[in-house]
Amino acid sequence: MLKRLYPYRFEIFLFSQMAILFGALVIPPALFESILSPILFFINLLAGIVLVSEKKKLMWFLLILVLISTVVFGTSLFENKNEILFNSTRMASYFLFYVIVSLEIIKQVWTAKIVNKNVIFGLISGYISLGLIGFFICLSIEMVFPNSFQGILAGNSLTEGLMYYSYITLLTIGYGDILPITTLAQKAAILIGLMGQIYLVVITAIVVGKYINQSLRAN
């Protein structure tokens, strides 16, 4: 099964990411956030496992992380006494998962000899993964140090606001409607911005250079 899916690993991972980010545009937000978003997020985790399935040890490690986060999430639904511990464990598992997957995407894109649509999908999904890493960093900070970010609208959930903030910072748009007001949150903003710029300047430039050389050789 994994061998059949592996050639389409980047497409599956990217499309599940896009569904998470933009599903609320076509589905009522309340329904999407409460039901579909967790399902899509779980699908994205499984897609990440497919992405590293050629490396068995790494695949099993990611499976363990997914299992831990799932067990912790299920336990937190029935046990509220250790909410901080549960949330911290989940965030650490997700953060580590996406760091590993992002590094694997970068490695596969970096070492690709031929630039085709799979490499382009991988390049895009790697950039989106950086936004998810930034989101988990910000969410972890907000959980440990509440009110580290100012400007999240009352009508929006914390996750929606910080997801938006992470990508706006990664893209260096910086509308300023959500502000990091603690030192730790400000350092996180700098880190997210640097990750986005380094990715565009280094990884994207390498892929573009490979494509240009590939086109020249073909001609």
From TrEMBL:
Q: What is this protein called?
A: Potassium channel family protein
TM regions (residue ranges): 12-29, 35-52, 59-78, 84-106, 118-142, 162-181, 188-212
What positions belong to coiled-coil segments? none
One matching Pfam family: Ion_trans_2
Record's Gene3D superfamilies? 1.10.287.70
> Does the record carry Transport as a key word?
yes
The answer to keyword Transmembrane helix applying to this record is yes
Which keywords fit this entry according to its UniProt record?
Answer: Ion channel, Ion transport, Membrane, Transmembrane, Transmembrane helix, Transport
Domain Potassium channel: where? 155-208
InterPro entries reported for this sequence: K_chnl_dom
Question: Which terms under GO biological process does the entry name?
Answer: monoatomic ion transmembrane transport
Tell me the domain of life. Answer: Bacteria
